[in-house]
Each structure stands twice: as C-alpha cells, then as structure tokens.
Amino acid sequence: MASQIEKYIRVKSFFITTSMNKINIWELGIKISIKPNKKFLKDINLAITKLFKSKEKFYNLKIRYKTQIPYQTFKNFLKYSYYNKGCYAPLNSFLLCCGCLGISKIHLQQNIESYKTQKGYNVIVSPILPIKITPIFDMILAHNIADGTVIDSKRNRQIYFGYRQFDKEVRGLYIKKIESIFGKIKFKKENYFENSTRSYCPPVLSQLFFSTYNLNKRSFLSKRARIPIEIMHKNKNFLLSVLLAFIIDEGNIDSTLINISLKNVNLTEDLYKICIKLNYPSKFNIKGEYGKLYILRGGMKKLFKDYKKLLKKYPEAYLGKSHKKIEEGLKIYNRVFYKTKGNKNIILKMLELEDLTVNQIANKINMTRQGVRFHINNLEDKGEIIKKSFIGKKCILYGIKGKC
Predict the structure, then answer these.
(1) C-alpha 32: how far from its chain's center?
(2) Given this model, what pLDDT does residue 320 score?
(3) What is the tens place of the pLDDT at every residue in 319-346?
(4) Domains and their CATH numbers in the chain
(5) What is d(CA 388, CA 356) in angstroms, rounded to the nearest whole number?
(6) Distance between alpha carbon 104 and the CA centroid of its chain, in Å?
C-alpha cells in the first residue's frame, strides 16, 4: 500500500514541479556553463556601473563572499572577448550576479546564446528555453529504453545516452528529435553520427531524462527496464509517441500485424497496457523468456490514423521505413483481390507459370502475407506444391511438383 501511495505522490508532484511541463535552465540540477549574448553583457555592465560605479566595488560588496571565483576571473566573465575564445562561464555566477542587480532569471535565460555541461564537449547553440516536456521528449526516452545504452566514461563526467541504430534515416531522426526539444547541437566531431551506427545525447541533455523520471543507470538494463509510471498517466499523444519508438526499434510489421517481442516481459506488458489505454485491439502473451505484443489489424489501423495526426504537429515522430510498411499493409483491404473467393486456386495457377516466394505472391495479388502462407501450407500439405529453392537464406521459392 505504501509503495502505491508513494507512486501517486511522485506522479502528482511531477506535474506540479515541472510547472506546465516546462523546465528552466537553472532547474536542470547539474553544473551548467553558458555563453550570454553581447547585448545582455552590455546591459549587465551598464547596470553595474550605474548602481556600484565599478566592477571591483560590485564584486567586493555583493559577490566576493558568495563565491570562490577570484575577481579577475569574474571580470573576464563580463567581457564578450572572453567568449570569442571559445570559453564558457558558470551559470551560477550569472545567477548570483543577476540576483544582486535585480535582473530576473527569466531575462538571463532569454539571453543565453549557448550552453553545455561544465567540462563538456558538445554545445547546445540557439537553445530552446525553457525546455518543454513534449511527446517527442518521451519518445527520445523510449528510444533509449528500447535500443539505447547508458555510457559512463568514468572521467569525472556525467553519464549520457548512446542510441544504437543501423538505419541512417532513423538515426538522423533521433538527432532531430533531440534538437526539436533542446536546440541545435554542435558536436565535438561534426556529423560524427553520419559514419557511426550510434548517436549520442550529450550529458547536459541526458541528465534531464534521469532527473525528470527519477531514473538511474540500472533503469535501462534490458531485463529490468520499464516505462516510467509518470508516462503511463499521461495523455494520448505521449503514450502514442512511446509506442512509436518501440515500433521503430523493436517492431516487426507483417502485412496488417505489428509484433513487438522483448526479452523483458514486464516492459512488453507496459506497452500492451498502453495499447489498452489507446483502445488499440491487441494481444499479449509470454513465450519462454520473451513477452510478445501483437497489435492487430484494427489496432494498427487506428494507431496509423492517430500517428498521422501526431505527425502534423511533431514531424520528428516519423516512423521511417515502418511508415511505408504499415501503409502498404493497410492498402491491402482496399484492393480487389483481398476478399476474392478462390485465392488458393489463383495461387496454384500462378505457380504453374513460375516459381514464386510468399512475398512475391502477396504483392502480385494484393493479399496479406499471412493469407498467402495459409494457402501455401495447405497446398504443400496436399502435395500440390513443393519447396524448389531459396532466395538468400530465408525466402523460399515454391513451385508445382514435377515441374522443371
């Protein structure tokens, strides 16, 4: 009972503390370094001169006993030339300075050109602040649960996400998702993810996912990962975005069926519960160590309709090649051959002319692959057709028995 109450409090406090799901830069909970814009530096210098006559007097009266930063370093933070050398200043120093001058934290936030973690390499330029917790934010997290790793460099740096993805288009979309939430990322190695199967989410950004949902490194272990309870209580678009991430990374689309099979039964069941919440007809079962989720034809049709609406607002949610597969699968039900009687005879006549695979037959007569397999198995059991050869390792060519 106590754990349920704690979960309820955590869910409720999450929505209160994020103030309409927006997070300011000073709320990130880690050491941040910033580069303020030139106009803001000019304004802050004018305010110091007007109120205290000199920077040294201001420092001695207001700053000296609240920081370990020496005067010369503090003075450099107020020069734009300091940032032209590629240097960054601690956010806390500017928050202290602004507080003493009566300048709001919001005004400071609006005038940040770029920021990064202290000692970090990757920089967020033209940042989007405050950071908004949108469905894409949760979709990024879901990608890292499904196909990500938590990297701990053990060099006095924050842990961060690495996302393994062999599809170049989807890999690029992962970076676009991150940039749609946080702003443009300037990586240490420009376009590094073009030549690598792993994309990285910089520590300054990765840490926000941990703190928002009270996660740690163990939360992403393949056998114990779960969808955070806070997300399970969110609205339709947030839940859908999580499901889409798993379809991209772990889904298998076969005609009008989406199958997600994970070696984590509880996580698979979380996805099944999302399908139930979204009213997507689906089935869940356990086979050995695996949890298996099947989103059925009606569910896939409804999911795709909801997804296209989401896509208009968040184009970064694009499914890539899975979009095309679902679209083609659903088109089957609008085609002439779909409900034609005697499909078995049509398939038999086709095989009299040439040897074909299940996929080739399905494409030619606009039928589901499951339906073609059903007829192929029946014809093979009756001895009317046989396996002739293979295309690659798995695609079987079928033909008429005795026909060369």
Answers:
(1) 23
(2) 92
(3) 999 998 898 888 765 554 444 556 788 8
(4) 32-117 (no CATH), 229-332 (3.10.28.10), 343-400 (1.10.10.10)
(5) 9
(6) 33
Provide the β-strand partners of residue 198.
164
Q: What b/e readout covers 94-132, taking b as 16+ CB neighbours within 10 angstroms?
A: bbbbbebbebebeebbebbbbbbbeebebbbeebebbbb
Q: pTM of the full predicted structure?
A: 0.78
**At which residue do the structure tokens 């740690």 appear?**
216
Rounded Cα–Cα distance for residues 205 and 227 (Å): 19
Residue 404 to residue 401: CA distance in whole angstroms:
8
Q: Give the position of tokens 């698979």.
A: 268
- Residue 261's φ and ψ, nearest 5 degrees, are -120, 120
Question: Which of 144, 151, 130 lies closest to 213 in space, CA to CA?
Answer: 144
Helix H or strand E segment including 124: strand 123-125
Mean pLDDT of 120-146: 93
Give residue 333's pLDDT.
58
The full DSSP string for 234-260 is S-HHHHHHHHHHHHHHHEEEETTEEEE
Tokens standing for residue 322: 């899975």
Q: Which has more confidence, 330 or 261?
A: 261
Indicate the range of 24-38, 52-66, 245-259, 336-350 predicted with least confidence.
336-350
d(CA 175, CA 188): 15
